[in-house]
Amino acid sequence: MLLKEVKLIQNQNDRQFPFTLPILRDFHKLSFKKPITILVGENGSGKSTFLEGIAASSDLPVAGGVELSQDKEMDHAQTLAKALKLTWMQKTKNGFFLRAEDFISFVRRIKQMKQEAEEELRNIEEEYKNKSAFAKGLASMPHARTIAELKHLYDEGLDVRSHGESYLDYFQARVRPNGLYLLDEPETPLSPMRQLSLISIILDAVKQGSQFIIITHSPIIMALPDADIYSFDVHPPQLIQYEEIEHVQITKNFLDSPQSFLRHL
């Protein structure tokens, strides 16, 4: 375990978002006793805001490359972070905070980095054509290194593969041992089969000492073995069993008899 507990130590201005959220009015603390914790609940229940507060307080990098402190839309996360106290068993700088929409920005940034490095190499070829190979090599080195590192991490490139494939490639390349990973609806770009692949990546990382806190609406991701599941539909959040989750019950009943649902629409 890395992160042991999140405690709300200040909630004085309940007229200011995010403290207007019902989940924070009765919130005291949330303990993490297992390497995988799953947060479930309806949209608007406060799950994402809570996770954003943890991300800001822990100072984890954001997968999209824009730090939370620089994202004006995330000012509420900084506000909440100041009111949270994180208790660690082992503080780590490994890991990241990922929202599904951040991944698209990340892919674009990686593509831009590669294009800029390739453009610089072309410029150097022209500028150094009458200079020594040694001088040209020195000038080319940082840009060639950028391209080599991107190829090592992402092979032919995240931008040339399907969204789901590149998403999994990102996890394979970036998940490290002893890291804290905060994932907000990581299933969004993934088919059911790809979600199983993501589960495999997560379980391998847990074996290497990593910890995951995951928001999800996917009954597949919710089924991660030996995970603690907290419902944000009750205040304060309470532990819940997989079979008790409303999303799981509705999905199961729908698959058993889709027409019994659809004929009422």
Please provide a written account of the structure.
It is found in: Cell membrane. This protein has 265 residues and is an alpha/beta fold. The chain folds into two domains: 3-100 and 179-262, 3-Layer(aba) Sandwich (Rossmann fold); 104-159. The protein contains ten helices and nine strands. A six-stranded mixed β-sheet has the order 5-6-7-3-8-9, sandwiched between helices. A three-stranded antiparallel β-sheet has the order 2-1-4. β6 (180-184), α7 (192-207) and β7 (211-215) form a beta-alpha-beta unit.
Quick description:
With 265 residues, the chain is an alpha/beta fold. Helices cover 46% and strands 15% of the residues. The strands form two sheets. A six-stranded mixed beta sheet has the order 5-6-7-3-8-9, with helices on both faces.
List keywords for this structure.
single chain; 265 residues; alpha/beta; Rossmann fold; 2 domains; six-stranded mixed β-sheet; three-stranded antiparallel β-sheet; 10 helices; 9 strands
Helix content: 40-55%
Per DSSP E runs of 2 or more residues, the count of β-strands stands at 9
Query: What does the average pLDDT come to?
Result: 83
* Cα radius of gyration in angstroms: 22 Å
Oligomer: single chain
Q: How many H/I helical runs?
A: 10
Assigned CATH class of the largest domain: Alpha Beta
CATH arch. level architecture of the largest domain: 3-Layer(aba) Sandwich
Can you tell me the overall shape? globular
Low-confidence stretches: 158-162
The biggest sheet, with number of strands, parallel, antiparallel or mixed sense and barrel status, is:
6 strands, mixed
Structural class: alpha/beta
- As laid out across the biggest beta sheet, the strand order is 5-6-7-3-8-9
Find the CATH topology of the largest domain: Rossmann fold
Distance between the termini: 46 Å
Our estimate of the beta-strand percent is: 15-25%
